[in-house]
Amino acid sequence: MLKTWRRFISAGTSGLLLFAVLINVHAGPAGAAAAADTQGSEQDVFRIVALGDSITAGYEPGMTDPSVKPYGYAERLLEQGWYHGRSTLSNYGILGLKTSGLLQYTAAIKDGAAATPEGIQPGLPDPRIAQFAAMTPQIRTELAAADLITITIGGNDVSSLFLNVKTLTEADFTAQLAERLAAYSSNVKSALDNIRAVNPMATILLADQYQPAPRIALGASYDKLMSAAAQFTVAAENIAATLNQAGAPVKVAHVAAKFAGVEGSLTHIIGAGAADFHPTQLGYERIAMVFAELQWGEYLTPAAAVMTSATAPMSIVVKGTTLNTPNKPILKNGQNFLALKDILNAVGATGKWDNKTSSATIIYGGRTVVITIGSKTIKVNGADVAIDTPAFLQKVGKEDKTYLPLAALATGLGFDVNYSSKLRTAFINP
């Protein structure tokens, strides 16, 4: 079994080298600044910065298709942020990063000077590492503005201990565990000190270390490794306790407890040909739940996300409340449309319909938007703005309902509109 695990890990490491598909991850280095610009500086935006290893990056084995974007805990956490208002994510998870690398990376971020890959950690397999190293001045700016900073780190520090658990003597295992715990505590504490130097007020959530293999695979070694994971949890709690203060919380996200006893379904450690320590999609959701419940006290799942029918309507969440209406949202030409009356009621806008011109006039927050049926332009405070897909009339029972494109509403009224294809949900925040 141990040889099998080694083969799994080797396969996973080779897979990391093919992870170039993540260079342009959603809301990553280039996306975060752009998202903030489009939302407008006058709006309150909840900013999330995710630091750490490949779990932060959202890696899963087999990610070699450039069209497949990661959907890890950080991306789910961004979706949870949309329930509570305008939110952005900057994800700087680095494949293969150890706590020593996190320490060096946060030191470079604190200094605001471009780093080198070797200066962060020699031999990192992440193809984006040169980009991340060069971007430390920008990352410092993003970190300084963050409201929430999340961290997963430490798995790469202890992976060899896990792999060799069956061949190590009790004394050697105990000694190596103590060595890794000491290094973890020192490196992570210093890394958090660097982060606090840049942002003294943001909430910091540090995940503990889950044990990835089920009892059936580990046999007698299972309890030993679970005990080791518990010691890392205590170490994380001790670190958090030294930095936690009123108005600037540092909390431990107790991920390990959520994986205990159900490791086989939450990780890829047992699988056909490509298994490794990384979470499955269910595992990433479980991690996101822990982070979200720490931050907001809940983890929300829209109704559309659990529907299996491809023709089932998507969910619309407006200012954190799911829009319930008989006028179902419509997906047309890749664009999402809502009934005029529903969106007016949901956001508290005023509007009127002109039969002569087949146009709707919407007034909200000092903006006046005129949307005409069939037109590929809308008027925003009198100026023409091009849109991709025009509004249309939809027969609902005996009535013709005016359906407006969400993209046009976002452009015209200054709303923040985000669509999650995974959740099949549009989030609208005025």
- At CATH level 3, the topology of the largest domain is Rossmann fold
The biggest beta sheet reads: 5 strands, parallel
DSSP helix count?
17
CATH top level class name of the largest domain: Alpha Beta
What general outline do the C-alpha atoms trace? elongated
Could you name the CATH homologous superfamily of the largest domain?
Answer: SGNH hydrolase
Helicity range of the residues? 40-55%
Structure description:
The chain is of the alpha/beta class. The chain folds into two domains: 2-296, SGNH hydrolase (Rossmann fold, 3-Layer(aba) Sandwich); 305-429, Copper amine oxidase-like, N-terminal domain (Copper Amine Oxidase, Chain A, domain 1), CATH 3.30.457.10. It is 42% helix and 21% strand. The chain contains 17 helices and 18 strands. It has helices spanning 2-17, 29-39, 54-57, 73-82, 99-111, 117-120, 129-134, 136-145, 155-163, 170-198, 215-218, 221-243, 255-259, 263-266, 281-296, 340-347, 406-413; strands spanning 46-52, 87-93, 148-152, 203-207, 250-253, 315-318, 321-322, 330-332, 335-339, 350-354, 359-364, 367-372, 377-380, 383-386, 392-396, 399-405, 416-420, 425-429. The strands form four sheets. It has a five-stranded parallel beta sheet with strand order 2-1-3-4-5, sandwiched between helices. A five-stranded antiparallel beta sheet has the order 10-11-12-13-14, with helices on one face. A four-stranded mixed beta sheet has the order 7-6-18-17, covered by helices on one side. A hairpin with a 4-residue loop joins strand 12 (367-372) and strand 13 (377-380). Helix 5 crosses helix 8 (136-145) and helix 10 runs parallel beside helix 12.
